[in-house]
């Protein structure tokens, strides 16, 4: 006889601990072109901002990722690049002192 679903034990999953926030974003801004790209690809801008703030720099080269790690510690400029499908990308830039973060289309960066 089969057990009711409520009596089945689910295998325990290891909970992934979210990476902690590394720096404040400050005031948020986005260009109209970047917002159009995000909208056309149905990408949530807040998800990308969370990744940026937690140290997932996206598609930047290793030397830029290393510069970002240094920038986090010294309140310098932080740059991330995220691919939106095959051709489109957006850039997220947090300025010195981490007072402003801007989402930009590639041609605006």
Summarize model confidence as the mean pLDDT. 88
Mind describing the biggest β-sheet? 4 strands, mixed
Strands of the widest sheet, in order across it, are 1-4-3-2
Question: Which outline best applies?
Answer: globular
Beta-strand fraction estimate: 15-25%
Uncertain runs: 1-15
Secondary-structure element order, N to C: EHHHEEE
Describe the structure.
The chain is an alpha+beta fold. β3 (88-94) and β4 (100-104) form a beta hairpin. The protein contains 3 helices and 4 strands. Strands 1-4-3-2 form a 4-stranded mixed β-sheet. The chain has one domain.
Key descriptive features of the protein:
4 strands; four-stranded mixed sheet; 109 residues; 3 helices; alpha+beta
Explain the layout of strands and helices:
Blueprint lengths: L26 E4 L1 H9 L4 H9 L8 H13 L3 E7 L3 E7 L5 E5 L5
Parallel strand pairs: 1-4
Antiparallel strand pairs: 2-3, 3-4
Q: Could you write a compact summary of the structure shown?
A:
It is built from three helices and four strands; from the N terminus they run E-H-H-H-E-E-E.
């Amino acid at each position: 006889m089969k057990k009711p679903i409520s009596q089945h034990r689910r295998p325990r999953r290891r909970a992934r601990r979210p990476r902690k926030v590394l720096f404040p974003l400050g005031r948020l801004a986005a260009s109209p072109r970047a917002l159009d790209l995000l909208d056309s690809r149905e990408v949530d801008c807040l998800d990308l901002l969370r990744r940026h703030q937690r140290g997932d720099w996206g598609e930047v080269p290793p030397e830029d990722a290393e510069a970002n790690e240094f920038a986090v510690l010294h309140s310098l400029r932080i740059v991330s690049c995220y691919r939106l499908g095959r051709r489109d990308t957006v850039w997220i830039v947090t300025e010195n002192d981490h007072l402003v973060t801007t989402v930009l289309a590639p041609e605006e960066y």
